[in-house]
Amino acid sequence: MSRGGQDKDRADGPERRCIATGESQPASGLIRFVIGPENQVVPDLAGKLPGRGIWVASDRAALEKAAAKGLFARAAKQPVTVPDDLPGLIERMLARRVVELISLARKSGDAVAGYEKVKDWLGREDADVLIQAEDGSGRGKSKLSTPQWGSYIGWLTADELGLAFGREKVIHAALGAGGLTKRVVEEAQRLKGLRVGRADATSVAGATGAAKAAGGGRAAGKDKRAE
Fold it and tell me: Model's pTM, two decimal places?
């Protein structure tokens, strides 16, 4: 165990093995759990809680399997209590984490919202990440293209993006090359693993594809319905 009570398998370490899939991958793509003082399974999204880590892929099916098949107890070698609707709990926690990180990026001047501001950042190549609400107009979203060599996030809702920017709803947002951008992308990727497993996965994937299919060219025209 390292300083501060953490063990060697904290989230910034090497690859970890998922107890549900049996596959190893970078820790940034998994959820770390520890066993609490009353034998409860506790999510540790930041990878900082003391104790031996138990790792599960950030994927709805993997989390459901781990909870239903008693894999946490097997990994912990003791009886444990698993929270009800574990995938839903992790999804809500990750969504809140992503929203908070975007809000911090906004406060430091590394994030903007609104069609025209995002279009301007893309045109000046100041944007590293294009973010669009999954429930926004597909036609409006297709008018903006993912930055070359950049990233796209399309599985947050307009309400969630609104919380990040202190507005009611936001459809279009962008992140610059600030210090929080990498963390936002990594946490958003973990969230994607939970959301693409939902019943509306097809619509989420469709929105993502529409934005990327615009490819190559920069923004054209104005989405009058978009914030």
Answer: 0.80
